[in-house]
């Protein structure tokens, strides 16, 4: 998408002051999406030197090497200044750090503004979805909370390669406001009201992507991977529906769309982590090699706890857990394994 088209959009649209907390690859990319949708965006970076680099050189060399950032995107290491006057707040921090960050900003978020989760994880210990942590920690009405998900590989989007996402909220107005702010010539947002299905789609596809990475690292071919993706989608759907999600959500951008992108790309952190496991690296070594958090690794245990509570069987995810714990050899992970040898319906 050419620069002139983006400039025209910014002039024609309604400019908003938006805050994004988290300057990793996805937080920075989404801030770029928002800025190129005609908004003034302030990005919170914990490290002052990273904030200066983003503001002064319009680069984030740690996480988006070679990508030029918009003039209307600035960064600050002061979360107070970032949130001052924000009309929407976007959260893109590691899922296991979310509660700590929310405790820090609870009294700084302007009243009545939408708070948007860009994260795809489940909190350890509580097994809460990110929107549930936000609601609990900030004491917000659920209608103020939205979640954004879909096939969102950061580097591709940062390069303005066209894609779509979905924004979910119990409030149609909140979903529409967020989707409007996050839409530009190369990034289109759809909306739905299925927060549960949308969030679990983003969480569960990470687990299947780890499985795909494992078998890829082992050297298995396309039949194995296609089988895991297909049976993995069935596991994802059964799980989400058991918790109140809608099956059509898992067949959409937040489910199948995200699953295809994450399982098929070396840009996926979860796929990369799985591939290293499949090549024989120990979990501790994989974690040390990763520049950013692979959310799927942290979500396996809480997801299986939730599944057990609802009586949902997840053979593929269970095998991923066994590989992580060292009780299953990576080459023994297979989509046809179930709890029974009896023929089962698809």
Can you describe this structure in just a few lines?
With 346 residues, the protein is an alpha/beta fold. 50% of the residues lie in helices and 11% in strands. The radius of gyration is 20 Å and the shape is globular.
* Count of extended strands: 8
Strand content: 5-15%
Biggest sheet details:
8 strands, mixed
| Integer-rounded radius of gyration | 20 Å
SS summary, helix count:
16
- Would you state the CATH class of the largest domain? Alpha Beta
Helix content: 40-55%
**What structural class results from the helix and strand content?**
alpha/beta
The CATH topology of the largest domain is what? Rossmann fold
The name of the CATH superfamily of the largest domain reads NAD(P)-binding Rossmann-like Domain
Output mean pLDDT: 91
Q: Runs with pLDDT <50, length 5+?
A: 1-12
Q: Please identify, by name, the CATH architecture of the largest domain.
A: 3-Layer(aba) Sandwich
Can you offer a commentary on this structure?
The protein is α/β, with parallel strands linked by helices and 346 residues long. The chain folds into two domains: 3-193, Rossmann fold; 199-332, N-(1-d-carboxylethyl)-l-norvaline Dehydrogenase, domain 2. Helices cover 50% and strands 11% of the residues. It is built from 16 helices and eight strands. The protein has helices spanning 3-12, 25-35, 48-57, 79-83, 98-105, 130-138, 154-158, 172-181, 195-218, 222-242, 247-250, 253-264, 269-278, 283-289, 295-310, 315-325, and strands spanning 17-21, 40-44, 73-76, 88-91, 115-117, 145-149, 163-168, 187-192. It has an eight-stranded mixed beta sheet with strand order 3-2-1-4-5-6-7-8, sandwiched between helices. Helix 8 (172-181) links the parallel strand 7 (163-168) and strand 8 (187-192). Helix 5 packs parallel to helix 6, helix 9 (195-218) packs parallel to helix 12 and helix 10 (222-242) packs antiparallel against helix 12 (253-264). Mean pLDDT is 91; it is low at 1-12.
């Amino acid at each position: 998408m050419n620069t002139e088209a983006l400039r025209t959009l910014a002039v024609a649209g309604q400019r908003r002051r938006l805050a994004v907390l988290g300057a990793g690859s996805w937080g920075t990319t989404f801030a770029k999406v928002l800025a190129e949708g005609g908004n003034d965006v302030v990005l919170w970076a914990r490290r002052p030197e990273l904030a200066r680099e983003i503001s002064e050189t319009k680069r984030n060399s740690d996480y988006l090497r070679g990508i030029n950032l918009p003039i209307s995107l600035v960064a600050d290491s002061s979360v107070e200044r970032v949130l001052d006057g924000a009309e929407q707040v976007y959260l893109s921090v590691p899922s296991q750090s979310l509660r700590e960050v929310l405790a820090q900003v609870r009294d700084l978020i302007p009243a009545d503004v939408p708070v948007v989760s860009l994260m795809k994880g489940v909190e350890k210990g509580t097994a809460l979805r990110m929107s549930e942590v936000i609601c609990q920690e900030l004491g917000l009405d659920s209608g103020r909370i939205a979640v954004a998900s879909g096939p969102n590989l950061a580097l591709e989007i940062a390069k303005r390669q066209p894609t779509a996402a979905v924004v979910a909220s119990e409030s149609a107005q909140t979903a529409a406001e967020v989707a409007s702010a996050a839409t530009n010539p190369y990034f289109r947002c759809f909306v739905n009201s299925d927060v549960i299905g949308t969030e679990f789609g983003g969480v569960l596809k990470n687990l299947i992507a780890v499985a795909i990475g494992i078998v890829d690292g082992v050297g298995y071919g396309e039949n194995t991977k296609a089988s895991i993706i297909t049976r993995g989608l069935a596991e994802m759907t059964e799980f989400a529906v058991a918790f109140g999600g809608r099956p059509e959500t898992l067949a959409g951008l937040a489910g199948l769309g995200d699953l295809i992108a994450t399982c098929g790309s070396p840009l996926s952190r979860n796929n990369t982590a799985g591939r290293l496991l499949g090549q024989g690296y120990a979990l501790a070594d994989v974690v040390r090699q990763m520049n950013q958090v692979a959310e799927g690794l942290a979500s396996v245990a809480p997801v299986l706890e939730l599944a057990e509570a609802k009586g949902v069987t997840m053979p593929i995810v269970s095998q991923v857990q066994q590989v992580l714990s060292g009780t299953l050899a990576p080459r023994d992970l297979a989509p046809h394994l179930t709890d029974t040898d009896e023929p089962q319906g698809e």
